[in-house]
Amino acid sequence: MSLSIPFIPRLGKLATAIGLGFSLLAGSLVAPTAAHAEGEIRIAEQFGIVYLLLNVVRDQNLIEKHGKEEGIDIKVDWTQLSGGAAVNDALLSGSIDIAGAGVGPLLTIWDRTHGRQNVKAVASLGNFPYYLVSNNPKVKTIADFTEKDRIAVPAVGVSVQSRFLQYAAAKQWGDKEFNRLDKYTIAVPHPDATAALIAGGTELTGHFSNPPFQDQALQNPNVHVVLNTYDLLGPNSPTVLFATEKFRNDNPKTYKAFVEALAEAAEFAQNDKGAAADTYIRVTKAKIDRAALLKIIDNPQFEFSVTPKNTYPLAEFLYRVGAIKNKPESWKDYFFQDAKPLQGS
């Protein structure tokens, strides 16, 4: 199986440059824009199979389809960013309407905007295990990482991968040590981190990844799984879509069309994995073998669904360690309560 992913010859100072580069990129994309009327939606996604529902929505023009059912023509604009921090900045600046990121960034922005913009999740993108992988043979558990190791995450301290790592650290050493491993993390996009981990020879020895990048890395015999998030939390929805209360209230027909489009995409992807694989390759132009991709998404642990599962343990943890100030009483506090999703957690 192969992916078209650029190779990073050396990380060290280059890793910092990558992080700065993406910060600058994000800055160029998040300039405030004027509010728009009903019938336009701007969506930011990131990298990986976890965004496959958005690939289906885009490929089949499902937002436009459901918009017509609501009596409006909807213009859809798609943007790709890397890291929850960049996505959150874009949403708050008004340059996007729908943010695609992990539960970690969602809870950060929900807490930050509580009582103001009131950002909440619209839907889950499904349930998927995320792996922390390493090419360091000495690293068997998270306790084995040292100052000589660096762990790639999409956004340091904010991404859901960073939050999963903190959750694991708290289980290992107690809540007071929840951020013990943060100093070893660096912000690197998934494709670049995967290439660097496979190539070896850099200070990057760990990558908290997502599919298909984690599967690509594991094709290398020198790479192994250190942590599986399903072992950590059980089956859960790591990636979600969220929006401001204002966008939802000011654009009810557009918002409804988006939710209905997601629900249709989830049913399509869950019931026809072959067609879902074809869609991913077609939309992302990823150079990945179809059979290998189908094997990944046909994993019985994968579930394409708009209904969130098992997100609250992470929310409760973040409040407990002081990472967020507002305590959600349940998942319903940080999800808009629409007809879909129905019964979440």
Question: Which characteristics define this entry?
Answer:
345 residues; alpha/beta; 5-stranded mixed sheet; 14 helices; 10 strands; 42% helix; 14% strand; disordered N terminus
Name the average pLDDT: 88
Helices and strands, in N-to-C order? HEHHEHEHEEEHEHEHEHEHHHHH
Provide the structure class. Answer: alpha/beta
Number of DSSP strands? 10
Radius of gyration: 19 Å
Strands of the largest sheet, in order across it? 2-1-3-10-4
Number of helices, counting only DSSP H or I runs of 4 residues or more? 14
Largest sheet: 5 strands, mixed
pLDDT below 50 for ≥5 consecutive residues: which ranges? 1-35
Q: Termini distance?
A: 35 Å
Question: What percent of residues are in strands?
Answer: 5-15%
Percent range of helical residues: 40-55%
Shape verdict: globular
Describe this structure in words.
The protein has 345 residues and is α/β, with parallel strands linked by helices. Helices cover 42% and strands 14% of the residues. The protein contains 14 helices and ten strands. Strand 6, helix 6 and strand 7 form a beta-alpha-beta unit. The radius of gyration is 19 Å and the shape is globular. The two termini are 35 Å apart. The N terminus is likely disordered.
Summarize the structure.
The protein has 345 residues and is an alpha/beta fold.
